Amino acid sequence: MAALVSGFSKLSKTEKIDWLVTHHFSKNDSIKQALKQYWNSDEKLQQLHDEFIENTLTNFYLPFGVAPNFVINDKIYTIPMAIEESSVVAAASKAAKFWQTRGGFKTKVISTTKIGQVHFMYKGKKEALTSFFDEIKSKLITDAKPITKNMEKRGGGILDIQLIDKTTDLDNYYQLHATFETLDAMGANFINSCLEQFAKTFKTEAETQLAEPVEIVMSILSNYVPECLVRAEVSCKVEDLSEKDIDPNTFAEKFVQAVKIAEIEPYRAVTHNKGIMNGIDAVVLATGNDFRAVEAGVHAYASKDGRYSSLTHAKVENGVFTFWMEIPLALGTVGGLTSLHPLVKLALNLLDHPTAKQLMQIVAVAGLAQNFAALRSLTTTGIQEGHMKMHLMNILNQFEATPQEKETIINHFKNNTVSHSAVVEQIEKLRG
Ligand code: MEV
């Protein structure tokens, strides 16, 4: 049964599985089979995935789908999405199609600055620290040249370093607050390497130039990137919002109200923004970017005014409906998984090898589209109608329905409300 282990990481993959099965599953062979069935028969491909992380046992599949018909700044895109939640890809596709005939999505990168900090403690006089920093600043940058040389050749690098006094919030706490331009790289390694070099130079020089020592606490990039911003927008005449039995004026009014509610009500804002992240994370993941970094940064941005609020905004002015969002996105299209994971390479290929700036715009559009689709459903038919139809397939698969059973039941629910119990009832009825 469950046990502690030492040297686990040194075991082979098969030995790790054996250990797991012996100590957690009472030597159950079906567990071994469940893990091994996801191994890729192409050994090289499997090894590639094994080496992405540590203690790999198998692969964990996520569906990889596409949402076509996105028109962004007059260019057509088919957007790759990796996500487990039903309805998300369908919703993105639906929103893309809706806006395709209404001018498409307009986007703009506002800024691309990334941030990193060296956090340190200093008990001496602030004036001495300030003049030491002014003196040493150019050396901080020069000593990092071996790291920044290539990035500079391409037009990026360190933008600035500032000394920040945080002693009113925490005794003796100061920062070197650095800004960077990392071009098409997400830049985490670049920024962290620069910061560690700053810390080294700073501490060494302080030893001879300051009376009191500098104690470096840590050097790390920030995932809060409010100056790495992108804007996405859709807009059309209110009358052009009409669709089927939806009255465009009522729709626009309710839609704007729904956004305003998310602007002032944090409980709603969190769910509203979660829907946006359905689109954003799916594209971020499919393109090999760090969705946890994006999540952390985006939600912090949603609280920038002191209260957690909607990331999107909407208005009707002079008969024109406008729906937009500005969000921070630190993304890369080179480095990391982008040249390693075959499906990431494919996804970037599908997007026509975007620059990081272009990817920021595509990802922002996926978020805006997702929010549009969610609010359209919520303020008209309700979310469950579409959602449960998509969920129907999951329930059918759970019950291992045959293709014949699936067809009959899907037909039945074309005119009936889907609920878990109603589907189970139909399956039982069919199976006698
Ligand atoms: C579900 O994953 C996302 C929604 O809840 C978003 C929203 O409520 O706006 C539908």
What does this molecule look like?
By secondary structure, this protein is of the alpha+beta class. It has 4 domains: 8-50, no CATH class; 64-110 and 233-381, 3-hydroxy-3-methylglutaryl-coenzyme A Reductase, Chain A, domain 2 (Alpha-Beta Complex), CATH 3.90.770.10; 114-221, Alpha-Beta Plaits (2-Layer Sandwich), CATH 3.30.70.420; 387-430, no CATH class. The protein has 15 helices and 10 strands. The strands form 3 sheets. Strands 3-8-10-9 form a 4-stranded antiparallel sheet. Strand 9 (312-317) and strand 10 form a beta hairpin. The longest helix has 24 residues, at 356-379. The protein is globular, with a radius of gyration of 26 Å. 33% of the residues are buried. (R)-mevalonate is lined by residues 85, 271-272, 274-275, 278, 374, 378, 383. It comes from Mesoflavibacter zeaxanthinifaciens subsp. sabulilitoris.
Strands, helices and their partners?
Blueprint: H1 13-24, H2 29-36, H3 43-50, E1 64-72, E2 75-82, H4 88-100, E3 106-109, E4 114-122, H5 126-143, H6 145-153, E5 157-165, E6 173-181, H7 188-209, E7 214-221, E8 229-237, H8 248-264, H9 266-286, H10 291-302, E9 312-317, E10 320-328, H11 342-350, H12 356-379, H13 383-398, H14 403-412, H15 420-430
Antiparallel strand pairs: 1-2, 3-8, 4-6, 4-7, 5-6, 8-10, 9-10
Helix pairs in contact: 4-12, 5-7, 8-9, 9-10, 9-12
Bound molecules: (R)-mevalonate.
